[in-house]
Amino acid sequence: MRIALDAFGSDARPEPELGALELALAAGIPIDLVGDHSRLRDLLQLRNLSESGRDLRLIHASEQISMDESPARAVKAKPDASLNVAIRQLAEGEVEAVVSAGNSGAILAAALFGLGRIDGVDRPAILTRFPHFDGTTVVLDVGANVECRPLNLVQFAVLGAVFATLEHGLVRPRVAVLSNGSEPGKGTALTRMTAKLLAAHPSESFEFIGYVEPGDLFSGVCDVAVTDGWTGNLVLKAAEGALAVWPRLLGSHPDFRGSRTSVAMLAEQLDPDAHGGAPLIGVDGTVIICHGAASSQALYNAIALARRSATRGLADAVRQAIATHRPLFDAARRP
Amino acid sequence: MRIALDAFGSDARPEPELGALELALAAGIPIDLVGDHSRLRDLLQLRNLSESGRDLRLIHASEQISMDESPARAVKAKPDASLNVAIRQLAEGEVEAVVSAGNSGAILAAALFGLGRIDGVDRPAILTRFPHFDGTTVVLDVGANVECRPLNLVQFAVLGAVFATLEHGLVRPRVAVLSNGSEPGKGTALTRMTAKLLAAHPSESFEFIGYVEPGDLFSGVCDVAVTDGWTGNLVLKAAEGALAVWPRLLGSHPDFRGSRTSVAMLAEQLDPDAHGGAPLIGVDGTVIICHGAASSQALYNAIALARRSATRGLADAVRQAIATHRPLFDAARRP
How far is B248 from chain A (nearest CA, A)? Predict the structure, then answer.
């Protein structure tokens, strides 16, 4: 059960990735580290690490994709970019999953190009989790698809429920549509049609509970919330921005000077990104996206999530759920 | 300089409104309290208050609009609702501004119906403010218009800049378009066209700085951010939900047991709604919307904001700015 780690994804690459590698090796997770071979070999030497064949393999990739490149163009123009090579390792069955902290648009493009979608999936989604006082809420899509149609959102409901069941052990997760109010008349044409379809086609694998508002993502009212990638991305970034205000304010407040460690621990506990990155769900393989600013610990958490997802058979579970819910998707495809 | 206070707006009406009334009277702000006369008279007596003619007038309104009514229908079906009567007081020049914690859709409908729009304004917007470590960011629209076109967003830029100048004393506020990334290629057709129009028509009264992401609303990067009412509403609710996670978590954490008062003060300081409510900007008169769960202090802050806005001539400043920016709006109207 090997994981491919894109060594040149994060903003501070490859240092955070090397730190994550050490954590993974210590936890007994075999890694294919993908990037410039000679550079990585030198850096590993400084950390008293070396390619072992079994636990750690270095997979050479001569190029890198940077954050400011056009994602689809860069993926096509640089077949030997570390991201592309990592995806190729997965496509060829050399590893069970890929973790990258690179440009999320590029990861999406590379995965679509190199792995393809699971049969029946119209659009893969980026899934994130809001950890909170009463548990964890799964939210998707948070950025893969700026524009969506009802078919996409009902598929996100199915995909999100599969993830909540596999990763959080929920038997029949409560699924909701993210909206600007809880009454059925609220929302947009997209959310109203999605809610209508989900209500008309009850699923055995999840319970549809209607609309939730963004505040409910922190309350435990639902286990999964679906939305288009524009709204999900802005809601995620607003939440991250708001969550980060508190530690700053507490850090400068005389009453909390002695509590910096506790505050930092709470901040990490609430950080959606620190909990294992964001799976790209719906592509034919396990791919986990991390934040460009991810720490070694966050990257390691993503590696651990990748391993759990692969062990538990996320892609196969998605394949099966997509097949089971065909009547719902057929209804969504009808004009 | 009188303010009309809808006594039957908030979820716990009229108690929070009566508390706000006491604060306003103590601060020397004359109030028209609008609602059921006999009921209000009895409740005022319990607080040792009475109608004085000058400081406090009771304005009878026999009906109320509730949160779960269809806004536009309720406003038309109940001409004697406290909200409608308060708006009428403003339309007839009896007061300078209206404050209500009622259904925001109903407040919008009542204001459009009773006051109309300022000449040249296509769609009024609900404006809110994100207070943060480095200042305050004005955001609009946060809920009046679920669907918007570029004309609306460029008008929101002008309206928001007027507010930032009048209320925050900024000479040439920095205005941005809310997006999912800072690069010009990001966003939607709506945000890209809005950015293009604002860049092509520089304004003397504000500086257009391009895209910001929701995290920037807490960083002081811009003074005003414009977006459609769907995105703005969800971003606001996500931020409010995330901000409220911290006090809960700190309250249950042993290291912070002794700091409850400080935590509560910081929470109030960060609460967008506590800072004076949300002006409905672009209608022909000063109308401030408060949260249904607003406290007496939050309602009083809205009354104080209403008085400042009226004193400083918000509606006239908007009228003038709308006239000055006509070329920008004409360009936005072109197909």
Answer: 8
